[in-house]
Amino acid sequence: MEFFQRQTYPYAVPRQATYAKKGMVATSQPLAAQAGLEILKQGGNAIDAAIATAACLTVVEPTSNGIGGDAFALVWTKGKLHGLNASGKSPQHISVDAVKELGYKDIPEYGWVPVTVPGAPSAWAELSKKFGKLSLQEVLKPAIHYAYEGFPVSPILSRFWNNAYQVYKRKLTDDLFKEWFTTFAPKGKAPAAGEIWYAPNHGTTLQEIADSYGESFYRGELAERIHQFSKQTGGFLTNDDLASYYPEWVEPIHVKYRGYSIWEIPPNGQGIIALQALNILKGFHFEEKDHVETYHKQIEAIKLAFADGQKHISEPSYMRYSVSELLSEEYGAIRRGLIGDHALQPEAGEPALSGTVYLATADQEGNMVSFIQSNYMGFGSGIVVPGTGIALQNRGHNFSMDPSHVNALAGGKRTYHTIIPGFMTKDNQPVGPFGVMGGFMQPQGHVQVIMNTLDFQMNPQVALDAPRWQWIKDKQVEVEDRFPHHIALELAEKGHRIQVQLEPNNFGRGQIIWRNPDTGVLIGGTESRADGTIAAW
Predict the structure, then answer these.
(1) Catalytic: 356?
(2) Were both Cys, which of 36, 74, 312, 328 would link to 53 (CB 3.0–4.6 Å)?
């Protein structure tokens, strides 16, 4: 394929793409990638491998995700792309007024207020029942093994763990958060690099999820333990909220870009932002990657797409405009026309009435999975259900306290969600899964790796290794320290406020697997900014 050609990038960490025939798992932690490959070799398919990898990541990378988080998936199987939305809803009895009565003007980052129903366990069970070949008990064995037997903590994981510990030690002083420190810092500190980490409570919970196909978490013993802890400590979450929750199969959404279809999960996720930006950018022609006009137009398109997303994205039933209106050719042309020679102050438009851990898997049968899950903001809310290892997410932090906003806090509602899996097809055939995790960097990362692939013919590893930028707000843009200095200066002359960011993780962590349609050969790229690994067969 034409975009397999470029093998190097002058400003990137030199790494080579990985090739394989029978199967591939790409994710941010070596043990989790190997767990997925182990399942493939045992006769599982790409869906089984994705579940195994995802569950394993809750053990071996707890700084980014957990049992108490959400998940989304795009699954290519049996000639069709399927979308799964396993993001949880807010508790039924929460409201703007109820939160204000607690003394909050804004939704806090920590505690019970931002906690929503976790969706990740339901995603594992649903994917296993619908498309898996092996039992959930078999698929979760590697994760359970590492939880009980322990694993050596990697240097990057140790650094992020310690960063979180320092923040939590300063901010989470209430007894409500005691279990977090008991679970994740039992020695009064974060685990050091090379230290063996054990999570036996986590392992027991995973076994309970495996044996019950997730039922215990939502309508059984685990649900009751979550409910009782919430009740005892002033939480909004109840067993009724858990019992009424089920993941939702959704129709993926897409735009055409350079002859390919780029797919995302529909709102409440922010994947539509990436699609809106590509819908704007496809009206331009880009000859050079390292040219100020390339970056300028990318940044401007992202700003316009985010302005729309932050005003219009919520659960679909609350949205004023439909996906088709926001992704229409006509609206894309209108937004494209706003891009000039200098940086814009982004504002939302009004279409005429008429968008963490990421992993990718593929097998020799043609199945491919794009999967993402997260607790949000590292470990999440800071609440851990005693004796279970379940760290609850703080997804509700993204709700608005403005009752007139489409994403206003309300009971039983899904919030604007940052985590998004991506997928690419051509002529109704799969090319493969891709993703870049990292909060609001995600749609920006999607746009950058897709353009690197299709506009600049980079193979997956080169597309991921290329220096990244991130729009922050207004005209503020952060660039990696490897970003071309002369282009940063030229962008500043166009009115962008450029800041060089030394922390590489601020620019997301991605994975890509493409399939050559002629030979069936898989080609993968993994993140050089993390412990990224591809396990191949």
Answers:
(1) yes
(2) 36
